[in-house]
Design goal:
Helix content: 55-70%
Strand content: under 5%
Order of helices and strands: HHHHH
Radius of gyration: 11 Å
Largest sheet: none
């Protein structure tokens, strides 16, 4: 949803901005991979959102 709201940013474009591959971004979005803390902060920063608005932890 955040990529769409950011002008329909592609997974590859987001990956370039945060230093990850498109495949890794796809896996994070699908819930198959948890990003590192650094990657999570970078993703939140790209969208100008606080970390807890982008990611929620369900234990």
């Amino acid at each position: 949803m955040l990529r769409f709201m950011a002008g329909e940013m592609t997974q590859a474009e987001l990956g370039e901005k945060i230093g990850l591959t498109r495949q890794t971004v796809a896996a994070i979005e699908a819930g198959k991979y948890s990003p590192t803390l650094e990657a999570a902060f970078r993703i939140a920063q790209v969208f100008g959102k606080p970390l807890d608005e982008v990611f929620q932890w369900e234990g």
